């Protein structure tokens, strides 16, 4: 797409995450990122009772009362085909239940659209194969998995520290993502539909570990589908990398995402439950780092818009192969939970850019 061209967007699925995408596109448009949401599709919008049940509250924030998250004023499509057949739409956000992601993304690619598909891509690594083939046949189309933590304020700062080496090498990295089981969709009551916290929640940290340090050589995991802790071992990387993910806390327990990363020259600590979320300790002092007041969803969408406009390289985005590799990694973690043994990880070969 050429610089200056407005990118027509369709949002598929308008639960909490779909509403967050809708708001992110609108805010990006106001800030000059050249996008416009031109249509939405959620079958519940066709039923007034169903529309009232659409969730607007998630782990970190509520979309309730947010005009940017309100689909009023946008064309409501009567079917998925109605949206995909619209020539004014060149990009779709897929924010439907996990089990539908691959099928909807394949249909969107065949309709000639670029795709932003929410995490997790799929419940099993093998489920991704049809989409991998479709994407490999259409290398001019972007299929971006929604690994928003790479873009989340504070987490993107950590990733930059690691990549530029400004704080020295990492000795230890500990990540945590803890909460109660989501209640904003009945889907979350059935682990067969979500993969439990190991797949639906912990996928964020499994991807972030790969983004920071590359593929681990093996994993050692303990716990259950609803509360897992994994030690990642690398052939050439930090000696201590751990991630914990859970949604087995009782209702009302506040969701928290955290990290503590020890570099050679400093320690970086993030806690979503405090005002000064990111702090750096070095030289006997701890100082807060000011973060931009945007969400990871907003930042990932701005990065995607910049790539589509030719202002950033495609390599700045997570690739479909990353989602396939994370799905494979999570299968090895599940195996380790079940067997109580360390499990070797061999990443799948990429089939597409």
What does this structure look like?
β5 (114-118), α5 and β6 form a beta-alpha-beta unit. This protein has helices at residues 16-30, 48-52, 80-84, 101-110, 129-137, 155-164, 191-194, 196-200, 203-213, 296-308, 320-339, and strands at 7-12, 35-41, 75-76, 91-94, 114-118, 143-146, 170-180, 218-224, 227-233, 240-249, 256-263, 267-271, 278-282, 285-288, 343-344. The longest helix is centred in the C-terminal third of the chain and has 20 residues, at 320-339. It folds into two domains: 7-147 and 299-318, 3-Layer(aba) Sandwich (Rossmann fold), CATH 3.40.50.720; 150-290 and 327-344, Dihydrodipicolinate Reductase, domain 2, CATH 3.30.360.10. α1 (16-30) packs across α10 (296-308), α4 (101-110) packs parallel to α5 (129-137) and α9 crosses α11 (320-339). With 353 residues, the chain is an alpha/beta fold. Helices cover 30% and strands 25% of the residues. The protein has a nine-stranded mixed sheet with strand order 14-13-12-11-7-10-9-8-15. Strands 3-2-1-4-5-6 form a six-stranded parallel sheet, with helices on both faces.
